[in-house]
Write a structure and sequence with these properties.
Helix content is 52%, strand content 7%.
Length: 294
């Protein structure tokens, strides 16, 4: 099992400096390496359209702003840091889970869209997706707080990737619950915290609500909700729900992350396990440590 962080730095610089008419096809070529992330999507797939829908950097404006952001990331050694962090985290997870097996992983790290108010505001310039085994995508704006948390962001997504890899926890779209998703975020945050500490580990969007009893209680009422179209509201909160055009449930951005980490912390304290060791523990077992149910 190996992890490859793609050299999107060179590719993005080439795209942003190319004539506007050539940029879309250059972007498409860069994105092709991570097409496997969408292997379960039905029908024809337009990688460029998905990139823009996911707040990926634009190809028709903000070139200088994006190039400056790229310079910031390159100067910070972002790609090298991410590769080291993922390789080191893989060792930790492998040692905690003897016999751990998963396919090779491809990581696509791209700039976000500085003109996207939801991405730059509620999302704090960062989104990640590691739920499809073998592929990780991170969309990023180099706010200082994000650059500081770069390693933690990467290993958070790695925990997801290996949790839901073949042989791990099954994500069945027909039965999966908000509780499954929330616990997964909590475990990934706890794992990043184990490696990088309390200040850098937990995802920024959940930090303000870590000890908010009202947010926690609200998320608990939705743990059994099914239908993946509902998850954004419960995990990412009302701003995410409004962005996706689904009904808000009265939660702040990142409320599900905060509640998930709280659930996980109760379980880890009760069992003495680490988040690395809990990689494949079912959400129901983790939730039971708080709610006393299986």
């Amino acid at each position: 099992m190996s992890i490859t962080v793609l050299d999107t730095c060179s590719a993005m610089r080439r795209i942003l400096r190319a004539p506007v008419a050539e940029r879309t096809e250059l972007l498409r070529s860069m994105l092709e390496a991570n097409r496997g992330m969408y292997r379960y999507f039905p029908g024809e797939l337009d990688l460029v359209a998905l990139h823009h829908q996911s707040a990926g950097f634009p190809v028709d404006r903000d070139e200088e702003r994006c190039l400056e952001a790229l310079d910031t990331l390159e100067a910070a050694g972002a790609w090298e840091r991410m590769q080291r962090a993922l390789d080191d985290a893989l060792v930790v997870l492998s040692e905690a889970n003897p016999g751990l097996a998963a396919p090779d992983i491809t990581v696509l790290f791209v700039l976000g869209d500085p003109g996207d108010e939801h991405f730059m505001g509620p999302c704090k310039g960062l989104t990640g997706f590691g739920g499809i085994s073998g592929n990780i995508a991170i969309t990023f704006w180099p706010f200082p707080e994000n650059v500081e948390r770069l390693e933690a962001t990467a290993v958070h997504e790695l925990h997801h990737n290996l949790r839901w890899a073949p042989g791990g926890v099954v994500w069945d779209p027909t039965t999966v619950t908000v509780g499954d998703h929330v616990v997964g975020e909590g475990l990934a945050d706890a794992f990043a915290r184990e490696l990088y500490g309390e200040e850098l580990g937990p995802a920024r969007i959940g930090v303000p609500y870590r000890h908010d009893d009202e947010v926690f209680a609200k998320v608990l009422t939705g743990l059994d909700v099914t239908g993946m179209e509902n998850f954004t509201a419960w995990v990412h909160g009302d701003p995410g729900a409004e962005r996706m055009g689904v009904t808000p449930v009265g939660l702040p951005m990142g409320g599900g992350y905060a509640a998930g980490l709280r659930l996980v912390d109760t379980y880890l304290a009760a069992t003495g396990k680490t988040a690395a060791q809990a990689l494949h523990v079912e959400a129901s077992e983790i939730i039971a440590a708080t709610l006393g149910r299986g």
